[in-house]
Amino acid sequence: MRVLFVCLGNICRSPTAEGVFRRLLEARGLAHRMAVDSCGIGPWHVGKAPDPRAQEAATRRGVDLSGLRARQLAADDFDRFDVLLAMDHDNLEAIEAQRPPHSRVPARLFLEYAGHPDRAVPDPYFGGDRGFDEVLDLIEAASRGLLEEVEAYLEPGP
Ligand code: 4NP
């Protein structure tokens, strides 16, 4: 299974989701059975590490984001992943606008997995530090929900 997290800049929300979800997979011994990545819609931060505020908030919860680097959503992402998980409605719209005609990969709001069918992970970039903790609370909840679906889907294996 291959999962791509998508936000606007790929320096706050989606790298946080990538780090949190990967750590959950590692804790369950499932990391080798899934591909997890993140990207952004916009070009502004390509090549940069996650925002220091996102890194600090994640570090406080035992998640290291320092090795991640921002990239933009690319046409081949629609072939390389089994699901695209958007942080907010604008991200979802941008994904659909860039979808190649042949692509059938599902794109959904990530917080569906936290039991919030229409809710967004708020963009913390222009806010204060507390926004990053709220982002982490939401992302941790959705990551646990996603993990449950993945565990039900993946058969026991090596
Ligand atoms: P992200 O946050 O989408 O969660 O990575 C943002 C980062 C940068 C910008 C907007 C949102 N920006 O406008 O540069």
From TrEMBL:
Gene3D superfamilies xrefs: 3.40.50.2300
EC number: 3.1.3.48
Domain named Phosphotyrosine protein phosphatase I: residues: 1-149
Family (UniProt): Belongs to the low molecular weight phosphotyrosine protein phosphatase family.
One Pfam family named in its UniProt record: LMWPc
InterPro entries xref list: LMW_PTPase (IPR050438), Ptyr_pPase (IPR023485), Ptyr_pPase_sf (IPR036196), Tyr_phospatase_low_mol_wt (IPR017867)
Source organism superkingdom: Bacteria
Assigned keywords, A-Z: Hydrolase, Protein phosphatase
Active-site residues (renumbered): 7 (nucleophile), 13 (nucleophile), 123 (proton donor)
Protein name: protein-tyrosine-phosphatase
GO molecular function term, any single one: protein tyrosine phosphatase activity
Family annotation (CDD domains): LMWPTP
Lineage: Bacteria, Pseudomonadati, Pseudomonadota, Gammaproteobacteria, Oceanospirillales
